[in-house]
Amino acid sequence: MGLRSGRACVEVAARVICACEEATAALPLRVALAAAFWFAIKLCKDEASSTERGADAALRRLEACSGVPARLILAAESRITRVTEEGWPECS
Fold first, then answer.
1. 50: DSSP letter
2. If you average pLDDT over residues 39-60, what whole number do you get?
3. How far is CA 27 from the centre of its chain?
4. Residues 54, 68, 78, 55: what is their CA dihedral angle, to the nearest 10 degrees?
């Protein structure tokens, strides 16, 4: 997908899938993986996605690779984001 920190993003995405099981359980696996990978791309703040234009291009590439519509990726990613934000204060 042209990401410079691809391996780090994949590791983060795998951890997100494991940590947010209840948020991703209702989603098809393909959608959950694409959303977790998009969350990881945003979290890693890759150079390719640092600008608005780059983020849009990265999302389009993810959409093309995964076969999951961009709107569905964004909706599932917002669900993952909400779960991680709600769970973080409990860990502190």
1. S
2. 73
3. 13
4. 0
Model confidence at 60: pLDDT above 70? yes
| Both tokens assigned to 17 | 């899938």
Instruction: For the chain, count helices (H), then strands (E).
Output: 5, 0
Query: How far does Cα 9 stand from its chain's mean position?
Result: 9
Q: Helix, strand, coil shares of the chain as percentages rounded to 5?
A: 80, 0, 20
Q: What is the C-alpha to C-alpha distance for residues 36 and 14, in angstroms, rounded to an integer? A: 8
pTM of the model: 0.78
N-to-C CA span, the chain: 35
| CA–CA separation, 54 and 13 (whole Å) | 19
What token pair was written down for 23?
A: 């948020």
Looking at every residue in the chain, the average pLDDT score rounds to 81
Ordered by start, the domain boundaries in the chain are 6-91
Q: Which residues contact 35 (CB under 8 A, 6 or more apart)?
A: 24, 27, 73, 76, 77, 79, 80
